[in-house]
Design a protein that fits this description.
The complex is a heterodimer of chains A (about 250) and B (about 300). With about 250 residues, chain A is α/β, with parallel strands linked by helices. Chain A is about 25% helix and about 30% strand. Chain A has a single domain (about 1-245), classed as Rossmann fold. Chain A is globular and about 65 Å long. The chains are: A alpha/beta (about 250), B alpha/beta (about 300).
Chain lengths: ~250, ~300
């Protein structure tokens, strides 16, 4: 069984996004970029399934700028076998991403497609579910545990209030939540080896998909700022304030 | 515009986040609801009472029993033949279902909206809430999820909607529900609580977390939350997590105990009305958003506070 893992290059988890002064977006110049953290978990899960002998090949796919190659090389260094870059300088929305990935899946015929539940830049949380819809496949979103059993997969999902388990026929789409696994760091020898693993270069036009935007961003602003309040000296003062607010009797 | 709102319900009761979604839908025009599930006559009748609701479409079938997106999305698509927008609360079920509907309709979804600026224009948070984007949809039909804390809840009474049964679209045979482990709630639910007491990594371990945080929460009648660091360290389960990757909350009072205030945590709670921070590090970022701060040892302050309340 092949596993397809879409990965996205985004602002690093620890970098502070700054809104551009002209309100057109977030300034990404000279900001550290990394693989979307949820996608790292997806790559890790796919590699673990290969190590267990469940999967035979792990293919990483990224849709984005030329530098997304670095993100793919990271996936290869972690243990993916080969990579596909669908290169475009346009910002691609989840619906168009899902259409491109559906075309890749038609060519690859993977048994599982594992994606991050959301990217930490646009926070859409859509691509996996959309891909499942377009391919008419089942979806196990926000997964914290994945067990492949013959031609089905059991997915434990993080839901409001706890966990839920669903059984899906394969091929299936899975999106990862934080507790699924802890991604490995690539070792130096593996980083070196990754440089010679195959990386195919494509464009959206190769797949005949229109990636025109459906949403127009009119402006991007900073959220209303909270101002720091007062520091109280001791618990008595805090209790007095809570009482004044009506929180405590 | 005619909007269809997917109703999330549990134990025969319409969930709060759906009431917020209905308020958002009402800003677009006429509000219709979809109640899907098994044995949902009672829910449908209750939903028809919600203020501002026109028609309630009811699909009563076991295949909708566990809100499986594979079965619900085709049902919504059927109904979207005569609706202009589909709205779901941005809960785990809503987030699971809505994008599947959107792709089937060839529509780009607008996720987690904070406001309705016009019939095709909305604001939504991006970059973990560090920026707010105003977006305009060019699609003929809209698919939207609504952040519950950003809209008032519609009143449960005062409406006089009509209830209409719709035919089941059947089991698509792709997925099945196996089971759930839903934590028993001895305290209010995080996303609807008026007061939340949250603990961070400074709480040391699970038993200490319980010993320090729970008595204060119980004294205040509060829900208990945690930072991602506390969840990662295994003190409490993930469903306690407040933050961009956990639950987004906006209670009247948020008490942050031993939480430094990482960006991702602030994103989940900074819309709280009053924030109280207790932390030994006076330079902790949490104090930049807190209305009331106490600098000191939480292991002394929290028990004393619990005692004096």
């Amino acid at each position: 069984m092949k596993i397809l893992v879409p990965v996205k290059r985004v602002i690093d988890y620890n970098a502070k996004p700054r809104v551009k002064a002209d309100g057109t977006g977030v300034d990404l110049a000279n900001v550290k970029m990394s693989m979307n953290p949820f996608d790292e978990i997806a790559v890790e899960e796919a590699i673990r399934l290969k190590e267990k002998g469940v999967a035979t090949e792990v293919i990483a796919v990224s849709i984005g700028v030329a530098k997304a190659q670095e993100t793919l090389r990271t996936s290869l260094a972690m243990g993916a076998d080969r990579a596909i870059l669908i290169q475009t300088d346009e910002e691609v929305e989840p619906l168009a991403l899902a259409k491109l990935l559906a075309k890749v899946q038609e060519e690859e015929g993977a048994g599982l497609i594992i994606l991050g539940k959301q990217a930490i830049d646009d926070d859409s949380n859509q691509t996996g579910q959309m891909l499942a819809a377009l391919l008419n496949l089942p979806q196990g979103t926000f997964a914290s545990k994945v067990e492949v059993e013959g031609d089905s997969v059991s997915v434990t999902r993080e839901v409001d209030g706890g966990l839920e388990t669903v059984k899906l026929s394969t091929p299936a789409i899975i999106t990862t939540d934080l507790r699924l696994n802890e991604p490995r760091y690539a070792s130096l020898p593996n980083i070196m080896k990754a440089k010679s693993k195959p990386l195919a270069q494509k464009t959206p036009a190769d797949y005949g998909v229109d990636i025109g935007a459906r949403l127009e961003t009119l402006k991007v602003v900073e959220p209303p700022k909270r101002t720091a309040g007062v520091k109280v000296a001791d618990v008595d003062e805090l209790v007095a304030k809570l009482k004044a607010m009506g929180v405590a009797a | 515009m005619k909007t269809l709102v997917w109703v999330e319900h549990e134990g025969g009761v319409v969930k709060d986040a759906t009431l917020s979604a209905i308020t958002a839908a009402a800003k677009l025009g006429e509000v219709h609801l979809l109640v899907a599930g098994e044995g949902v006559d009672g829910v449908a009748a209750a939903a028809a009472q919600i203020a501002g609701v026109g028609k309630v479409h009811v699909a009563d079938d076991a295949v909708y029993g566990h809100a499986l997106a594979e079965n619900i999305a085709p049902l919504v698509v059927e109904l979207m033949g005569h609706h202009d927008a589909f709205i779901a609360p941005a809960t785990s079920n809503g987030k699971n279902i809505a994008p599947r509907v959107a792709a089937l309709l060839d529509v780009m979804q607008i996720s987690d909206i904070l406001s309705v600026e016009g019939e095709d224009t909305f604001t939504r948070p991006i970059y973990a809430g560090n920026a707010i984007a105003t977006v305009k949809s060019k699609d003929a039909k809209k698919v939207i999820t609504v952040r519950g804390t950003a809209f008032e809840k519609a009143a449960r009474e005062g409406g006089s909607g009509t209830v209409e049964a719709v035919a089941s679209t059947g089991d698509k045979g792709l997925s099945s529900f196996v089971g759930a482990e839903i934590a028993k709630l001895e305290r209010p639910e995080l996303t609807s609580a008026k007061i939340i007491v949250s603990g961070g990594r400074a709480l040391k371990d699970g038993p200490t977390f319980e010993e320090v945080i729970y008595p204060l929460a119980d004294k205040l009648g509060a829900a208990v939350g945690a930072s991602r660091a506390a969840v990662d360290a295994g003190y409490v389960p993930n469903d306690y997590q407040v933050g961009q990757t956990g639950k987004i909350v906006a209670p009247e009072v948020y008490v942050a105990v031993g939480i430094s205030g990482a960006i991702q945590h602030l994103a989940g709670m900074k819309d709280s009305k009053t924030i109280i921070a207790i932390n030994k590090d006076e330079d902790a970022p949490i104090f930049q958003v807190a209305d009331i701060g106490v600098v000191g040892d939480l292991f002394k302050i929290v028990p004393e506070l619990t005692d004096k309340l």
